[in-house]
Amino acid sequence: MSASALFGNYARSNLSFDHGEGVWLVTSDGRRFLDCGSGIAVNSLGHAHPHLVQALQDQAAKLWHISNLHQMPDGARLAQRLTDATFADKVLFVNSGAEAMEAAIKCARRYHYDRNDPDRYQIVTFEGAFHGRTLGTIAAGGQAKYLEGFGPKAPGFDQVPSGDLDALKAMVGPQTAAIAIEPIQGEGGIREVDYEFLRALRKLCDETGALLIFDEIQTGVGRTGKMFAHQWTGVDPDLMAVAKGIGSGFPMGACLATEEVASALAPGTHGTTFGGNPLAMAVGNAVLDVILADGFLEEVQKKGLSFKQKLSGLVDSHPKVFEAVRGNGLMLGIKCTAPVGDYVAAAREAGILAVPAGDNVVRILPPLTISEDEIADALDRLEQAAVAVEEKLLEGAAE
Ligand SMILES: *Cc1c(COP(=O)(O)O)cnc(C)c1O
Question: How far apart are CA 368 and CA 330, in angstroms?
Fold first, then answer.
């Protein structure tokens, strides 16, 4: 049964949404769903946020695209605001997460090339990582299920077990261009990395001359209650990939770097036709207007704590379905005992959207604008779904 002319590479639900309002999504036949998936951590300010709609509409009437052959004042302004808020001095705008990671990887390699070290191209990453679906980033992620059937794995990528400092030290050497890591693994199952481990990474990079790349594509732009997740740790990278929440649904990404590292990408070395176009820059600036406003991130922290606490209660009362809560801010995950696919389907039945991840974890990634009342509503629905899964388990046992 393949009536659609679309490629069959996605396993889609049968829901079809017509519009959104804040944290709610509404189907064409009027059913309302509480969106705790945010289109996989993308709709940071929910759906149809008035400030973003206005910014996009205003820009749409003026100028859509001009290419990077000309000045981009809104891009320069957005870059300045991002660098003011981070370790970085320079920003390259792109269109997606994978493209932001590719830029970071290319920049790291070219940095060493420029220092007469052309063989220094190895990128070290961690098991369970996800860095995107391009040929380069599937090699970086190193997961067999994403590499299978796509020809030889791109050379220069090696992995070590997550959190294993000894394995890392054995792997890193004069051939290592960079170490890349997600401060919290997203697709891998909301697996947090020890702050201590990130500090050890920074030290190892400083000792060996390797660059440190943070993949904050999922963790960034306020998701954990800081602008970027690594800002909880006191450890700064040399390069950072950002995407997902930065456009709150408008496709865009960015690669951030220190001045010294960014200078490796001199004119002609790298580029993108669409990256940083006026529509994206208008939306990106509007997103920052909201997220960088006084008190916004503190609110995310508060709501994150409250949500996590409530989820802990839920987990305790449903041990047949859940095992433990993980995550920081509004990047939360529940490790399930029951199959996560069954739970996500039951949640959908209860009118709430969540996202499955690796390690049998369900991700709870609501818009950062979710209210305490909506969090309470989410809990009711998540509870209903847990009860439904328990009933199904009982029926299964009775057979
Ligand atoms: C989603 C994601 C990517 C890939 O982003 P795309 O926009 O799908 O290319 C890379 N890294 C992490 C950590 C992600 O969550």
Answer: 7
- Tell me the pTM: 0.98
Ligand 1 pocket member 132 (CB < 6 A)? yes
Q: Return the CATH class of domain 51-291.
A: alpha beta
Longest distance between any two alpha carbons in the chain, whole Å: 69
Residue 14 CA, ligand 1 centroid: distance in Å: 24
| CA atoms within 13 A of residue 141's CA, in its CB half-sphere | 25
Please say whether the beta carbons of 248 and 43 come within 8 A.
yes
Q: Is the CB of 130 under 6 A from ligand 1?
A: yes
Task: Supply the pLDDT for residue 51.
Answer: 98
The model's confidence at residue 351, banded by pLDDT at 50, 70 and 90, is very high
Reply yes or no on whether the pLDDT at 398 is more than 90: no
DSSP for 21-80, please give it.
EBTEEEETTS-EEEESSHHHHT-TT-BS-HHHHHHHHHHHTT-S---TTS--HHHHHHHH
Segments making up each domain of the chain, as ranges: 51-291, 297-361
Residue 82 sits at the vertex; the CA angle it makes with 78 and 87, to the nearest 5 degrees, is 155
Mean pLDDT score of the chain: 97
Q: Report the candidate in 47, 71, 103, 135 with the shortest Cα–Cα distance to residue 257.
A: 103
